[in-house]
Specification:
Elements: E1 10-13, H1 23-34, E2 43-47, E3 53-59, E4 64-70, E5 86-89, H2 91-98, H3 103-106
Parallel strand pairs: 1-2
Antiparallel strand pairs: 1-5, 2-3, 3-4
Length: about 130
C-alpha cells in the first residue's frame, strides 16, 4: 500500500501524460510542469490519454518508487475536463481512483480544509436572537 504509515499529499497531473517515461522523465515533469519537489515525499499521479494506465511516482525516503497500474477493463475517471494543470487528491481518493472508481471525478469526496477565521464578539448591549425576557 502506498504511504500507509504517513500522511501524504497527492498531486495528479490533469492532462494526459506520456507513460513511456520512467523515473527521470516523470521526475522532470514534476519539477518543470507541476513545479513541485520530487523528493518532498508527496505522490504524483499520471494517467495516459485513453485512461487505461496510471503511474504514481513517490519518494519513500530511500529512493524513488514508481507504481504502474493497467486496468484490464474500463477506464480511470477523467481528471482533466475541469482542471487546468494539477489536481490535489487525498490518499483515500488516490486509492479509490486506482481501483477504477468513477466517483473521484464527479463528487468531491474529501471535505474542504477548515480555515479558522477571526472570532466575532457581539457589541455590548446588542441582543442576539429573539429570546423573551420574563
Amino acid at each position: 500500500m502506498i504511504g500507509s504509515t504517513r500522511n501524504l499529499r497527492v498531486w495528479a497531473w490533469a492532462a494526459p501524460a506520456d507513460l513511456r517515461k520512467g523515473f527521470d522523465g516523470l521526475s522532470g515533469h514534476v519539477s518543470s510542469k507541476l513545479e513541485r519537489e520530487v523528493l518532498s515525499g508527496d505522490c504524483f499521479l499520471f494517467v495516459n490519454r485513453p485512461r487505461t494506465r496510471a503511474k504514481v511516482l513517490l519518494w519513500d525516503g530511500t529512493g524513488l518508487c514508481l507504481y504502474h497500474k493497467r486496468l484490464e477493463q474500463g477506464r480511470f475517471a477523467p481528471l482533466w475536463p475541469t482542471a487546468t494543470e494539477s489536481v490535489e487528491l487525498t490518499m483515500s481518493e488516490l486509492s479509490l481512483y486506482l481501483e477504477g472508481c468513477e466517483l473521484v471525478s464527479r463528487v468531491e469526496l474529501s471535505p474542504k480544509a477548515h480555515v479558522l477565521g477571526p472570532i466575532v464578539v457581539a457589541a455590548r448591549g446588542e441582543r442576539r436572537g429573539k429570546a423573551s425576557v420574563g
